Amino acid sequence: MNNDKKFYVYIIQTITDKLYCGYTDDVQRRYKLHCSGKGAKFTRANKPKELVYVKEFNSKTEAQKEEYRIKHLTKKKKLELIECPV
Questions:
Q1: CATH entry, 7-83, from 3.30.70.260, 3.30.460.10, 3.40.190.290, 3.40.1440.10
Q2: Over the stretch 1-53, which tens digit does the pLDDT of each residue have?
Q3: Buried b / exposed e along 23-43 (16+ C-beta atoms within 10 A)
Q4: Would you say the pTM of this structure is higher than 0.90?
């Protein structure tokens, strides 16, 4: 097992200004999948405009926990996170 593998939480803004949050081990590959309509049901219905947030984690579990936390934030809080990442 590769202990150097990194995981990422990302937020995509759609053309209708909705926000989609996910996690992956390869942000660019995953974003391309979303743009092609094969990434997630949400991004098939809401076409991605741009990748607006990425945060790196040392484990899949940490990334999943952060994804869960972000998904439960209000849109206002998500926008604040994008503007001022911690």
A1: 3.40.1440.10
A2: 556 899 999 999 999 999 999 999 999 999 999 999 999 999 999 999 999 99
A3: bbeebeebbebbeeeebbebb
A4: yes
